[in-house]
Amino acid sequence: MVTVEFAPALRRHVDCEPQQVSPGSLRDALEQALEAAPALAAYVFDDQRAVRKHVAVFVNRHLVQDRVRLDGRLEPGDRVLVVQALSGG
User: Fold this and answer.
1) Spatial separation of the C-alpha atoms in residues 64 and 22, rounded to whole Å
2) 20 found inside a domain
3) Taking the model in full, what pTM does it have?
4) Max Cα separation, the chain?
């Protein structure tokens, strides 16, 4: 299984415990995990179903650059972390 976790900054809007989902594409994993908290999808995806600009997705601590296709393959044991991207100055 693949673990998908949403950081506390996102879970404060809609709580969602870490989810265990089937290996496959990153998009499939995110969609499966969001089935546990459908309202959280609006915080993660825009209206084109791309990852929002203020959200960052990491797979095994590596930042995912492609916010649109999300077709990277996940293997059993992989960990996905979805966080609110912060910026400041």
Assistant:
1) 19
2) yes
3) 0.93
4) 39
